[in-house]
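Incident log, structure service

09:12 report received: a user says their structure output differs between two submissions of the same chain.
09:20 pulled the input from the user's history:
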Amino acid sequence: MRLRMLADDYTEAVNRAIAEDREDLVERLAAEYPDAALRVLTEAA
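09:34 re-ran on a clean worker, output below:
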């Protein structure tokens, strides 16, 4: 459940960044997502 919420939050943030033509933010969000997802998975274990 937490992983799904994280994915939804990142998807929304990326879509907003795209709409604002913020390629730098899109790249940063894409780069940090795997680490954030791993944290959620390891905290749940």
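09:41 both user submissions now match this output. Likely a transient worker issue. Closing.
09:42 reviewer note: The chain has two helices and no strands. The CA atoms of residues 13 and 29 lie 8 Å apart.
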